[in-house]
């Protein structure tokens, strides 16, 4: 959530930042409410001062055992009613202000390229060189079904489209990828954490999924609970309404979870395979850092996410998202796109973002500095470390053999117990 003071003092710049996101937002109503709020607060302060003076007068009369004038009692009751009425108006206006601010996305960092959509993203670097297959390639869904490790027909019968059933060695490979990712990130100092898959509205609002992205969420019919779209939501909310000591930062967490997304704006895209499903597995990285270090922490986050792909021998590229493509809560985002030999293209496998104080303001998470004891909002970051299903797909496509088998990357073999999946 943006600081209303920033909007108040820099409205033209904030409006331009929203235009860079392809959003034409008028802040006139917000600023009117802000003005009304100040006026009402002033009136309340005056009325409270008057009430206090009258209360003092009543106290003096009581101490002198004098009869209280009816006019004075009537006046103090009138002032009390006026204060209550002004406080009700203040609550209403503050609710309007908060509702408005909750729907405004983050301001893009100055280093983010200005653009309309993903076509304006900037490729930063390539890591590894994609190998060209010497035989006719297959897509991962073809490979998986022929190997008997993926069953989309069964998933469709059970749940509907955009789900997958894994079988046999496919189950083992999925678990192996998860365990490998967790172990590698723990070696980098991330603390493993397991959280609930159901979270309340406050948690979803804290990370920015609500209210704007509610249509992409799965909500329980009974109770105000949502299935998590990513472990970012519960993990980041662990420190909601807390003050962390400067010496405790950065806090780095790694968490495996199933993820659930309606993908309401993506119908017609990736209708086959494991790339865009309603339920999928992911290992998530979350950081709580000091504001002055968040930029470098984002760069290290990207390296940590990319490292697991390099260890698996998967080629990828790092892409800096434009203002028209970054997420609602993000100030700056890098996507890691893995090479899929079967599809012959790069596809997103991780998204690493710096939210700055946007989420921390919504969740009231602060850092206390040791020297001056000053408290201020810290910065939050998160990134996929990485998407498990897409890694599964990348292994099938990049390690496929001409006879239809798939070789298991070396570092996964101690987790799988086998080095190849044969037809």
Automatic annotation (TrEMBL):
Its EC number is 6.1.1.11. SUPFAM superfamilies: Class II aaRS and biotin synthetases, tRNA-binding arm. Residues 44-96 form a coiled coil. The keyword Chaperone does not apply. One of its GO terms (cellular component) is cytoplasm. It is found in: Cytoplasm. It holds the Pfam family Seryl_tRNA_N. L-serine binds at residues 230-232, 261, 284, 382, 384. It is an enzyme of class 6 (ligase). ATP binds at residues 261-263, 348-351. Residues 139-409 form the Aminoacyl-transfer RNA synthetases class-II family profile domain. GO terms for biological process: selenocysteine biosynthetic process; seryl-tRNA aminoacylation. One of its GO terms (molecular function) is ATP binding. Keywords: Aminoacyl-tRNA synthetase, ATP-binding, Coiled coil, Cytoplasm, Ligase, Nucleotide-binding, Protein biosynthesis. It catalyses: tRNA(Ser) + L-serine + ATP = L-seryl-tRNA(Ser) + AMP + diphosphate + H(+); tRNA(Sec) + L-serine + ATP = L-seryl-tRNA(Sec) + AMP + diphosphate + H(+). It comes from the Bacteria. InterPro entries: aa-tRNA-synt_IIb (IPR002314), aa-tRNA-synth_II (IPR006195), aa-tRNA-synth_II/BPL/LPL (IPR045864), Ser-tRNA-ligase_type_1 (IPR002317), Ser-tRNA-synth_1_N (IPR015866), SerRS_1_N_sf (IPR042103), SerRS_core (IPR033729), tRNA-bd_arm (IPR010978). Signal peptide: none annotated. Pathway: Aminoacyl-tRNA biosynthesis; selenocysteinyl-tRNA(Sec) biosynthesis; L-seryl-tRNA(Sec) from L-serine and tRNA(Sec): step 1/1. The keyword Hydrolase does not apply. Homodimer. The tRNA molecule binds across the dimer. Belongs to the class-II aminoacyl-tRNA synthetase family. Type-1 seryl-tRNA synthetase subfamily. PANTHER family: SERINE--TRNA LIGASE (PTHR43697:SF1), SERYL-TRNA SYNTHETASE (PTHR43697). Consists of two distinct domains, a catalytic core and a N-terminal extension that is involved in tRNA binding. Catalyzes the attachment of serine to tRNA(Ser). Is also able to aminoacylate tRNA(Sec) with serine, to form the misacylated tRNA L-seryl-tRNA(Sec), which will be further converted into selenocysteinyl-tRNA(Sec). This is Serine--tRNA ligase. It comes from Endomicrobium trichonymphae. The lineage of its organism: Bacteria, Pseudomonadati, Elusimicrobiota, Endomicrobiia, Endomicrobiales.
């Amino acid at each position: 959530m943006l600081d209303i003071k920033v909007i108040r003092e820099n409205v033209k710049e904030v409006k331009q930042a929203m235009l860079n996101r392809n959003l034409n937002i008028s802040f006139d109503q917000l600023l009117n409410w802000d003005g009304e709020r100040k006026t009402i607060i002033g009136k309340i302060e005056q009325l409270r001062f008057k009430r206090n003076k009258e209360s003092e007068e009543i106290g003096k009369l009581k101490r002198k055992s004098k009869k209280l004038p009816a006019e004075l009692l009537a006046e103090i009751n009138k002032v009390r009613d006026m204060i209550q009425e002004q406080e009700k108006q203040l609550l209403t206006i503050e609710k309007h202000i908060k509702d408005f601010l909750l729907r405004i996305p983050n301001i893009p960092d100055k280093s983010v390229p200005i653009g309309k959509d993903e076509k304006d993203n900037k490729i930063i670097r390539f890591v590894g060189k994609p190998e060209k297959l010497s035989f006719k390639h297959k897509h991962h869904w073809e490979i998986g079904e022929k190997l008997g490790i993926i069953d989309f027909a069964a998933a469709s019968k059970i749940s509907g489209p955009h789900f997958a059933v894994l079988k046999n060695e496919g189950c083992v490979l999925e678990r192996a990828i998860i365990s490998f990712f967790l172990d590698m990130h723990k070696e980098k100092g991330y603390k493993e954490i397991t959280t609930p898959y159901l979270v309340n509205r406050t948690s979803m609002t804290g990370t920015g999924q609500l209210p704007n992205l509610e249509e992409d969420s799965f909500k329980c019919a009974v109770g105000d609970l949502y299935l998590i779209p990513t472990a970012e939501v519960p993990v980041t909310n662990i420190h909601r309404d807390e003050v962390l000591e400067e010496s405790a930062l950065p806090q780095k967490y790694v968490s495996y979870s199933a993820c659930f997304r309606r993908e309401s704006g993506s119908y017609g895209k990736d209708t086959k395979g494991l790339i865009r499903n309603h339920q999928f597995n992911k290992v998530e990285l979350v950081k709580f850092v000091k504001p002055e270090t968040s930029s470098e922490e984002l760069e290290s986050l990207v390296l940590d996410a990319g490292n697991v792909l390099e260890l698996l021998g998967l080629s990828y590229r790092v892409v800096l998202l434009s203002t028209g493509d970054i997420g609602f809560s993000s100030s700056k985002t890098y996507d890691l796109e893995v090479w899929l030999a079967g599809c012959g293209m790069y596809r997103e496998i991780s998204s690493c973002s710096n939210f700055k104080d946007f989420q921390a303001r919504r969740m009231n998470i602060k850092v206390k500095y040791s020297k001056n004891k000053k408290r201020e909002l810290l910065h939050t970051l998160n990134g996929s470390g990485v998407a498990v299903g897409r890694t599964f797909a990348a292994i099938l496509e990049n390690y496929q053999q001409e006879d239809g088998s798939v070789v298991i990357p070396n570092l996964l073999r101690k987790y799988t117990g086998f080095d190849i999946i044969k037809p």
